[in-house]
Amino acid sequence: MSATASLAVTHLVPLAAAGDDLDKNKVTPGVLGFIVFAVIGAAVWLLMKSMTKHMKRVDFEEAPEGAAPAPAAAAADSGAGGGKATA
User: Fold this and answer.
1) Burial (0-12, 13-18, 19+ Cβ within 10 Å), 17
2) What is the pLDDT of residues 33-77, one digit of tens each?
3) Is 7 helix (H, G, I), strand (E, B) or coil?
4) 70 neighbors 63 (Cβ within 8 angstroms)
5) Per residue in 4-15, pLDDT tens?
6) Which of 34, 48, 76, 82 has the fewest CB atoms inside 10 Å of its own CB, making it the most exposed?
7) pTM for the structure as a whole
């Protein structure tokens, strides 16, 4: 057993012995449990709000199946291909 593990066990033994006088039917998460739950809830709410904002910015229109590419995309592809320049 490592030194860290033995140190942890020596600190947990008194806590385990003190657990006998607690009524197991009345144990609740308490204030700390509520705070953790509230922080997680707020984080999820903020992430959903941010995701909604980012999804509204997306401008995506799916082309119908079998349709030709848009003229602007075809012009950009031919201009960037390095073909012969017309004067």
Assistant:
1) exposed
2) 999 999 999 999 999 999 999 999 988 888 888 766 666 655 555
3) helix
4) yes
5) 767 666 665 665
6) 82
7) 0.43
